[in-house]
Amino acid sequence: MRASLASALMASPSPAVSPGSTVRQILQPAVIVGALGYFVDIYDLILFSIVRKTSLADLGLTGDQLVNQGLFLLNLQMVGMLVGGIIFGVLGDRLGRVTVLFSSILLYSVANLANGFVHSVEAYAVWRFIAGVGLAGELGGSITLVSEVLTKETRAYGTTMVATIGVFGAVVGGLVADLVSWRTAFFIGGGLGLALLVLRMSVAESGMFRHMQTSAGVARGNFIALFTNWTRFGKYLRCILIGLPTWFVIGVLVTLAPEFAAALGVMGPIKAAYAVSFAYLGITVGDLASGLLSQQLGSRKKVVRGFLLLTLAGIGAYLLVRGESAAVFYGLVFLLGLGVGYWVVFVTIGAEQFGTNIRATVATTVPNFVRGSLVPVTVAFTWCKAQVGILPGAAVVGGACIAIALAALHGLQETHGKDLDYLEPS
What we know:
Elements lengths: L18 H8 L2 H30 L5 H31 L2 H19 L5 H29 L5 H25 L2 H19 L6 H8 L15 H12 L2 H11 L2 H8 L7 H26 L2 H21 L5 H14 L3 H10 L6 H14 L1 H15 L1 H21 L16
Helix pairs in contact: 2-3, 2-5, 2-6, 2-7, 2-12, 3-4, 3-5, 3-16, 4-5, 4-7, 5-6, 5-15, 5-16, 6-12, 6-15, 9-16, 9-18, 10-17, 10-18, 12-13, 12-14, 13-14, 13-18, 15-16, 17-18
């Protein structure tokens, strides 16, 4: 049975939402600082994809090593995010959402500063893994906190603001990396993260979590519980699988944009930094549009389905272009980003599917399992590329990711307007 936590909120009841109060509801520390935190998180998360070629070339790698070692380091970062997602997700439900946000940003900021000092691939690998662990806690913690402090009428606006401002960090990262050396770009990211710790002091813990702490016999952050019940496990797995295409697009099509451009005969040089910036500019627009549409349509599922189909169309256009200009190619990269701009709705769905005592665990592990899925996705892509070539290989893997996501979405519960004031049974 679901145990109501409504009594915990009687001391500070949520007011009826009017057009005039909506902005005041959204513009509070948890949302503003969460958005800035995710901005720094995305800047640091995507920075390696931006500086992959230049940094590895500076370390003495050439030719196929730039792709093979680049994918290896990216996969290590994603494995780190898998590990960090579990650690910070469990801690978020046991120690609090705010505690996790402090801890994660401190870890990934220090790791990214260290990345600026590496002089070997081995050291690079160690610090990318550690950075991945730290980066894992930011988004899930922020989305969980915002979902719990805002009313059900306004939480979609709050999570949209977090994601829209946050993903713009990749656009800034691309511009910064084009103006300064790759080492300096890492230093800037680490410094921004440490500076953000000061703002985090203004953020208070959610009322739902504080009340849960006082409830006797409540199992908090039980990650294993997600696998001990088939219904719960199926719901959890579907939450992960609907995000599968996002990191295929970012980790394969965008990260390897220079290689795809060469295979497509694109006229003019293609810079990885510009490709990442255009992709995340598209994701920024997509996150804003998908978040607002889910609120206006009263449905998360309809919006995700529409954006998955848009992603499929974008992948097709990206892989079929031949001999076009660099401007057209970057435009297609923007379209790819727009298609996977359902990320904010995808993460919100995960947070809304489960009770307060396991919500942070789910909201933090789900996006990081999706990021970690890049490992098998790149393995599959590498195998397909060896069998049929880079373009058909990408089409096969991309099509499979879309098909899996659509099938997973079909079995999920609609969560728009759902009351989150309940506990998940043990």
